[in-house]
Amino acid sequence: MKIVFWTTIVLVLFTYFGYPLLMLGLLRLKRQRPIDKKRIWPGVSLVIPAYNEEKSIRDKLRNVLALNYPTEKIEIVVVSDASSDRTDEIVESFKPMGVKLLRMEQRNGKIAAYRKALAHLKGEILLFSDATSILDREAVTHLVGNFNDPSVGCAGGLLLYVNPKKAMVGEGESQYWSYEKKIREYESRLSSLTSVSGTLYAVRKNLYPGDMKDDLADDFIVPFEVKMKGFRVVLEPEAVCRELTVHSIPEEMAKRVRITLQNIRGLLDRLEILNPFKYGIYSVLVISHKVFRLLVPVFLLVLFVSNAVLAFESRLFLLLLFSQLFFYLAAIVGYFLNKSVKLKVIESIFYFCLSNLAILIGIIRYFKGKRVVTWEPIR
């Protein structure tokens, strides 16, 4: 039982702290070839997926129409997944400014909509951005500059969260994302990103996996596909987009459960990416970042149970058990203080527990056969 206890502690600590340290060590040992980035103006198809986004789509279109990119080189396409509100009407009002609407008459989800839209897109670079994210004026210019390097197949933008309501779940999300940004920076420099943010990323059209299954996430599968075809997936920190954090706990839970389901199915669909004999260091990154992260709630359960069994063998194990109980109590306190008291430590603990509870629920739902195809706007 002691072996089980200490092994799970090591696995949890490695997932959150050992992994970035491992990458830092490898970066010092491995000479990196810099990306040959230049200002270039390839044809770009900027695709905005939308389902009932009447609250956001007008501001989004005004935002992308103001981008600093040659008008004749960029087509803006809104793919409406059978929206039932005023989304399509609003998009149509931007038609004189060159915005195109592709409406799906039957709602089949984002991936199915992308697949149908693919044949209509003219750009050699496909750029995807959510209806709720706002891009900096130079974001597209910085992002596509990476494609001057023939080794680059996909480039991800940098997502910054804005939390005007200062809700604890939003603060926790912002703190987590600050940590995640550093992880992605290391991955990009060392090998390739293991995922991109769906709020803003670009990919060569000939590398986009048009046969992707409807219940997978494109921001998870596209990087795998690009890497499997021999190209790099890089982070472009100058391509900034901003998005509001989620401020409702049920909404954040729903989002994390959906992401977990799609990540599990994505890993199983591209299982060969976990083979280090074929994909080298990139497989190690995927296992460390994606597989272990999914397994953390399982590790935590095993850790707690094994600690409870060992608690009365020594004062050390009893102290460690009380430490775990205090940690989870702090998360419960954070839940009740969500909108009143602001303590960064409590916010971090609360979001850590919330995220891992959502992952655990996602795992359970996966084994129950749950699939996620469509999505709901939550911001």
Short description:
By secondary structure, the chain is an alpha/beta fold. It is 51% helix and 14% strand. It has 12 helices and 8 strands.
Describe the protein's topology.
Layout: H1 2-29, E1 44-50, H2 57-65, E2 74-80, H3 87-92, E3 99-103, H4 110-117, E4 125-128, E5 134-135, H5 139-144, E6 152-162, H6 168-190, E7 201-204, H7 218-228, E8 232-244, H8 249-269, H9 276-279, H10 281-310, H11 315-336, H12 344-367
Parallel strand pairs: 1-2, 1-4, 2-3, 6-8
Antiparallel strand pairs: 4-7, 5-8, 6-7
Helix pairs in contact: 1-6, 1-10, 6-12, 8-12, 10-11, 10-12, 11-12
Note down, in words, how this protein is organized.
With 379 residues, the protein is α/β, with parallel strands linked by helices. 51% of the residues lie in helices and 14% in strands. It contains 12 helices and 8 strands. An 8-stranded mixed sheet has the order 3-2-1-4-7-6-8-5. The longest helix has 30 residues, at 281-310. The mean pLDDT is 91.
List keywords for this structure.
379 residues; alpha/beta; single chain; 8 strands
**Which strand order do you get reading across the main beta sheet?**
3-2-1-4-7-6-8-5
Helicity level, as a percent range? 40-55%
Poorly predicted runs: none
Task: Describe the largest sheet.
Answer: 8 strands, mixed
Structural class: alpha/beta
Radius of gyration: 22 Å
Encode the helix/strand succession as letters: HEHEHEHEEHEHEHEHHHHH
First CA to last CA: what distance? Answer: 45 Å
What's the count of strands? Answer: 8
- What average pLDDT do the residues reach? 91
Tally of DSSP helical segments: 12
Global shape:
globular
What is the beta-strand fraction? 5-15%
